[in-house]
Design a protein that fits this description.
11 helices, about 15% strand, Rossmann fold, elongated
Length: about 325
């Protein structure tokens, strides 16, 4: 399998390693029929060369060539992915995939420019240096090539989360845009405190702040410009600030926040309880049916004498109704 990766940044390199290396991290090798031969193309030729050297791949021209690959993977910023698909989809003979982080726009572009190819959008929900992890996947037009790619990602210890473009992009408004806005706002507004003054909540936010601020600013800017979510965080923060001198209003905001999250968790627990109860009911039904079958078999073997069989049942029924057997 020949794979062209357009974009030689950290995510493109992660994808290159993930599909070309074995589960133990060793290279499969270009001569291995089960392996993938990787080539990188980038607006920065030096970046493409560096990625190729780092992952054991090759370098391909970004444009002006008439080449073809089994798979073309777009590993470019989400603000540019649709244009990149338009420019490079015709270099794919069998499949087009992306790892940009948004799903609606790239899948629409793939359908427009690669209608007869396999089409899959991937979003690794982690930074490459924290791999493996959970990968959101939309298989818009699945097939054997993309199935093999997903199999290799699983081999590397990743969990594949099947979803839809709409579900994913709506979730990212909370998971990324709102979350990052909240953490960055805390990082800007808060001051470091002397050792010993930390509370568990502050310490948790401090660790989140360190994690977020060790990333790439452009990536966070792309997320904010692509997904809604930050305005809702700003509105909520303003509401809390305005209510700090109104005790009743602040308590109401607190209760609203608590109900939003604890009711959500309760709903999940309720569904689990219902599922467990249903399983118990099914087992009881099977047990009752088995008992009835045993009784019928006993009747046949004793010539149909039901009285000797039914007496214990009457006694049990009497006890369940609050009575006792004389």
């Amino acid at each position: 399998m020949d794979v062209l990766i357009v974009g030689a940044g950290s995510m493109g390199r992660w994808f290159g390693r993930a599909v070309s290396e074995g589960a133990d991290g060793t290279g499969r090798g270009a001569s291995d029929s089960s392996g993938a031969t990787i080539a990188y193309a980038d607006v920065d030729p030096d970046a493409a060369m560096s990625a190729a050297e780092e992952t054991g791949g090759n370098v391909a021209p970004l444009e002006g060539v008439d080449d073809a690959y089994d798979v073309v993977c777009l590993a470019v910023p989400m603000t540019h992915v649709a244009d990149a698909i338009e420019a490079h989809a015709d270099r794919a003979e069998r499949a087009v995939v992306d790892v940009s982080g948004i799903m609606g726009a790239p899948l629409e572009a793939m359908a427009d420019h690669a209608p007869d190819r396999e089409r899959v959008s991937l979003h690794p929900l982690f930074a490459p240096e924290r791999a493996p992890g959970s990968i959101a996947v939309v298989r818009d037009e699945p097939g054997p090539v993309t199935d093999e790619l997903l199999s290799r990602l699983r081999e590397r210890g990743n969990d594949v989360l099947e979803t839809t473009a709409d579900e994913h992009d709506r979730a990212m408004e909370t998971v990324q845009a709102a979350t990052h806005a909240a953490v960055l706002s805390f990082a800007i507004a808060a001051d470091a405190v002397p050792d010993g003054f930390e509370t568990p909540i502050y310490d948790g936010l401090r660790e989140l702040t360190r994690t977020v601020t060790e990333g790439t600013p452009r990536v966070y800017a792309d997320i904010q410009s692509t997904f809604e979510g930050a305005d809702a965080v700003a509105d909520a923060a303003a509401a809390v600030a305005e209510a700090r001198t109104d005790r009743e209003e602040l308590e109401a905001l607190y209760r609203d926040a608590a109900s939003r999250w604890h009711e959500s968790e309760s709903a999940v627990d309720d569904e689990r309880t219902k599922s467990d109860e249903s399983a118990v009911d099914d087992e009881r039904t099977k047990s009752d049916e088995s008992t009835e079958n045993d009784r019928e078999t006993s009747d046949e073997s004793t010539g149909g004498d039901r009285a000797t069989v039914e007496e214990p049942t009457e006694a049990v029924d009497s006890e369940e109704n609050g009575g006792g057997t004389p």
